[in-house]
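Form 7-S
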Amino acid sequence: MSDLDPTDPDVNAYAYLTSIVVPRPIAWVSTLSAEGAGNLAPHSFFTVVCADPPIVAFASIGRKDTLRNVLETREFTVSMATEPLMEHVNDTSAPFDHGVDEAEQVGLSMAPSARVAPPRVAESPAALECRLHSTVDLGSSVLVLGEVVSIHVDDAVVADRYPDFARMAPVARLGGPLWSLPGEVVSRQRPQSPDDVAAR
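Output:
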């Protein structure tokens, strides 16, 4: 087994990390500039970090339009990236010029949000409206934390009150150009005591 130093210039730490930390859900982030120009971009460094208050986080690798807009307006939305929309998600990662609306360029419809100005992807089955909580400068990336102020879920993907994985069909990022498609789902009850583990 190799023992690699991530600070070694001959070691591509980004390639190793994005190949090991998999699969990664995708935050399809919609923002508006201070002038009102739309921006839509996928970010695969994304997760939930708090339930009360509800907070999600994504990392901007470099200072791109998404980060600039969030800092200017303090609002954004996160739409779910799904298998039927995968090509659109990928296309919105293209390096469009500043001020160009990616959703318009790739033929997506945007729906108005309830509590924030940036719209959400109308074709996506679920979306989160967020207001900026804080940012953390981490070097080559900036961590953006957003408090969720509204949740949108299409009734067609709901089962037993909550969004259903199979119906949503989310996609995720792997290393390099690889993506993960929805696959088999299994269920495991969390142990309620050490005795539950010992019993196995």
